[in-house]
Amino acid sequence: MDANQGVAAVKPNLAKAAPSASFRLRNGSLNAVRLRRVFDLFDRNGDGEITVDELAQALDALGLDADRGGLAATVGAYVPEGAAGLRFENFESLHRALGDAFFGSLADHDDKAATEDGGGKKAEDEEEMKEAFKVFDVDGDGFISAAELQSVLKKLGLPEASSMANVREMICNVDRDSDGRVDFSEFKVMMQGVTVWGA
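RESULT FIELD:
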């Protein structure tokens, strides 16, 4: 971080809370895809680095009103010397550190899950899917409509949101009962098909 900015770089020291499915998913491939998409969205100029300003703008666009000073202090510890911002691997490290600080280490939770029966893990995965579904099901009626999908895509700044025809086509690709909406079971099938090559 630039000394002229007058902000000391410190690693977060945050109290641990219960794990949250909405912050990070246990499915490594799905989490890696999601994290890469978030990184690409935040990297507005496409230079492969996220500056504090880009991160603050993205958080502001999501309605999270970022405190630039606090953000600079937290992020600064992960920006490599001589770099203008976070590269993807730094962003991943920051995400992991925040997750560990807020919710405890994934390894701790994985050890606990390994001692449970398979049903416990499946129930946990189901809950994570429900949390992800709720992000898109804005009105809470149990379905993702084209308008809801378009709204979320717009908030994320994705180009697919520019055309309702594109959004409807996305829905048609997973809409097994042809009702023009995505229900939870269709959503699960769609999300289980997401993988990262080489992950």
